[in-house]
Design brief:
Length: 138
């Protein structure tokens, strides 16, 4: 017979309060490990190597590293799509709070059309960041 872990509401609230700190600590630990052991072996971006153009995710590692140093401007310079990722994490965290407080609410759209729009926006961002007019801005 499987036992299901049941937490009281106060325990869930305590865990949710600790979650951002635990996540930040884990991110900093993973950043150090990634920089030391993984980055030296990572190949360069295949799209950038083949075409000279930056793909939507080019610079994301630098962006996350800058965010770990609390350098928001450097993070956005490396890749502005980090804002979308951070926004998703904040909304997911808020959804967890609404669930724990007994009023579950979905804050992140789940419809396919929304995510197709996100993909189109990411591709538009990739195109714009490769235009000479936007060089150094995005």
């Amino acid at each position: 017979m499987k036992h299901k872990l049941i937490l009281k509401k106060t325990q869930k609230i305590a865990l949710l309060c600790l979650l951002p700190f635990a996540a930040a600590g884990l991110l900093l630990l993973l950043k150090q490990a990634y920089a030391a052991w993984v980055m030296p072996w990572m190949p360069p971006c295949l799209i950038r190597t083949a075409t000279g153009l930056r793909c939507p995710s080019c610079g994301m590692t630098h962006s996350v590293f800058a965010l770990c140093r609390l350098d928001l401007a450097g993070s956005l310079r490396a890749n502005a799509l980090i804002l979308f990722g951070v926004l998703l994490l904040v909304l997911l965290y808020a959804e967890c709070w609404t669930r724990v407080l007994g009023r579950p609410k979905k804050l992140i759209p789940r419809k396919k059309g929304f995510w197709i729009g996100v993909l189109i926006a990411a591709l538009a961002y990739a195109a714009a960041r490769n235009l000479p007019a936007f060089a150094g801005i995005i």
